Amino acid sequence: AILVAGLGIVVAALLNRFGQTTAAGVLLIVLILGAILGAITGTPGGLPLVDMPAYDLLVIAILIGASVLSSGAAFVVAAVNIILIVLDFNLQVYAPDLKVQLATSGTLGMLARPIALQVIIATVAFLWVRGLQEQVRRADRAEEIAHLESLVADQKRALEYGVDQISQAFVRSANGDYNVRVNIPQQNPLWGVGAQMNTFVQRLGAANQASFEMERARQEAYRLATALDDWRAGRMPIWPAPSGTVVDVLSQRLSGQRPQSAPSQQGGDTARPLGHPESGMPFNWG
Fold first, then answer.
1. Spatial distance between the Cα atoms of 160 and 243, rounded to a whole number of angstroms
2. Burial class (CB in 10 A: 0-12, 13-18, 19+), 61
3. Which of 76, 118, 154, 269 is deepest in the core (most CB within 10 A)?
4. Which residues, in sequence order, are CB contacts of 265 under 8 Å at separation 6+?
5. pTM attached to this predicted model
6. pLDDT tens-place string over residues 186-207
């Protein structure tokens, strides 16, 4: 019996090692029940009164079932124990001392204590394991909550970083720095907003450059108009210097056609400035 029990424990340990916890628990329960019932039924001369407390040892199987299998397994094992107790007590031969006690207490009186003990221990084991499982679940929830809080904190830091980068880009672009770029990692939730911000700043810089060139062209056109007014009035015009705008083409064409000397009254051939009403040039000065 010791050899069989030892071999069974080794097999149960191997099953538990390979993740077969349920099979290992069932094997342990079978070994315990077999060992206890084997000791009770193996007594020479029938079942004596002194072996009746041996039925109480079957509660060990209840504790193992509740601990290894599940909390509800405590009642299943208790039911199996009660059935085995009733069958063994009714099928065995009674020793003389048990017969005397049985005549006094009766069958119900002899089985009441071991059966009641099975029910009580099963209930206690169920509540104990259920409370332990609840504590484990609370610990798991606490760990999960801590993990979620860590994720939220990381997301908050990422959002704060992204908002700070975008805010700096807004301030610098508002101050005329159109080379600023938002550098946000791709895993940041605001990465898409940062990319759109970079596009916006780039287009804003292009629009500002176009506005600057348009304003400069307007100023150069005003200077060219002033020079033409001077030319019309017979004064020496001051042609605008090259500015890199579209007005340069007109300024170069007009300045290249202006007379080299002031108007003369000699020889009957009068030289007139470009744009003079009598010069014959196609300019209508109103």
1. 46
2. buried
3. 118
4. none
5. 0.53
6. 888 888 888 888 888 888 888 8
